[in-house]
Write a structure and sequence with these properties.
Layout lengths: L1 E8 L11 E8 L2 H6 L9 E4 L5 E2 L4 E8 L4 E3 L23 E6 L4 H10 L15 H7 L2 E2 L2 E2 L4 E8 L4 E6 L21 E10 L12 H10 L3 H4 L5 H15 L7 E5 L5 E2 L1 H15 L8 E2 L5 E2 L2 H7 L6 E2 L2 E3 L6 E4 L6 H19 L8 E2 L1
Parallel strand pairs: 2-5, 3-5, 4-20
Antiparallel strand pairs: 1-2, 6-7, 7-12, 8-9, 10-11, 10-12, 13-19, 14-16, 15-16, 17-18, 18-19
């Protein structure tokens, strides 16, 4: 069924809580509905959105907002999940056969994570409690705690609004990068509407605990189990529980204080540039000062944007109705619940300028400005 509304209030459909409206709002609940939508007749521009968790509306949307309600989770026939290594190049001989799970684009991503954990399936537990929907996860290549969507996506199915046909993209064809994919490229942005995503999960334990202090937190949770329960206690559900606890401690609940989660991408700099940053910090704070960082395989270095923002004195600071969250400086919040888009953008620009001035690093927003 297709539902159309005009001048739709989007306040509760974007986690920032921006008080904006869409000229036209179209919601559909099946793949077949897409064929019946007259895309050429929709008010322009056209925006397909999920849970509105990675968007900053800069004002009322003058075109059409599309929203998917395609909602299903289905395990595909496990006997057909590429039983031969030659059929799945990234899987070595003797490794576990992946469990392919097809998930509708309108499924809330965390509900999928919860389902997978209850099924004992590994792969998405580190992505627990990220807001948004499954379709958007494939476009954005969401990531957290050392895992990205691309690590578990097998294939993305879409409707091509130009050729008016259904198509699919392998994970390689999606061109995934850090919070990026071909679906975000200007030349094709909006052309493909994700209908469902097939994820490759595993029944074989594959914990990913190498990011930050995650292993310590999981070890602590495991040790808290009764001795008779400790063996085999490392499960997707346990890791999911730990991840949710960490996220709740660091990030605001959108229902309480609006935000889009991590506002900025973590910058990647050359080894030489990092050495300059490190030298400047030691000169300012002493020889024992540490600069958090992650060495990447190509020789570059990822530096946490949150650390840079905090070093510039922004943590907890307020500007009008907007503020930098006092528990996680990577997050800009709608502090009063009444913030205007202009206040968020003004604070964003001031943070970018100060980080550039102090570290000669240009921060880039992870959040899409609409």
């Amino acid at each position: 069924m297709i539902k159309t509304e005009y001048y739709k209030d989007l306040t509760k459909m974007n986690t920032f809580g921006m008080k904006v409206k869409a000229r036209c709002f179209v919601e559909y609940d099946s793949v077949a509905d897409l064929v019946d939508i007259e895309f050429e007749e929709l008010a322009r521009p056209v925006l397909h959105m999920g849970g509105g968790s990675n968007l900053l509306f800069t004002g009322d949307f003058k075109g059409t907002v599309l929203h998917s309600k395609i909602n299903f989770i289905e395990i595909l026939d496990e006997s057909s999940c590429h039983p031969e290594p030659s059929c799945h190049p990234e899987r070595s001989e003797g490794s576990a056969i992946p469990v392919l799970v097809s998930v509708g684009a309108g499924v809330v991503f965390d509900e999928f994570c919860e389902w997978a954990a209850k099924e004992g399936l590994w792969g998405v537990e580190n992505l627990s409690y990220i807001p948004g929907e499954v379709g958007a996860s494939a476009v954005q290549n969401i990531g957290a705690y050392g895992v990205e969507a691309k690590d578990v996506i097998h294939k993305v199915y879409c409707y091509d609004t130009v050729e008016e046909e259904f198509v699919s993209f392998s994970v390689e064809e999606c061109g995934y990068g850090y919070r990026d994919s071909i679906f975000k490229k200007p030349e094709i942005r909006g052309r493909y509407i994700v209908t469902h995503v097939v994820f490759a999960l595993s029944r074989e334990p594959k914990p990913q605990l190498g990011y930050g202090h995650l292993k310590d937190a999981v070890d602590s949770a495991t040790s808290a189990c009764n001795p008779e329960q400790r063996e085999g206690s490392l499960t997707p559900s346990l890791i999911r529980k730990v991840i949710i606890k960490i996220r709740k401690e660091k990030l605001p609940e959108p229902s309480v204080m609006g935000s889009a989660g991590s506002f900025f991408k973590n910058p990647v700099v050359s080894a030489e540039h990092f050495a300059r940053i490190e030298a400047a910090v030691k000169a300012e704070q002493g020889a024992d000062a540490k600069v958090p960082h992650y060495d990447l395989p190509d020789g570059t270095v990822k530096v946490p944007a949150a650390w840079m923002i905090e070093q510039c004195g922004w943590k907890g600071r307020r500007s009008g109705g907007a503020a930098v969250y006092d528990k996680q400086p990577l997050v800009i919040v709608n502090y009063t619940g009444e913030a205007y888009p202009e206040e968020i953008i003004s604070l964003e620009k001031r943070i970018i300028a100060s980080v550039k001035d102090k570290f000669d690093v240009e921060l880039h927003p992870e959040v899409d400005h609409i």
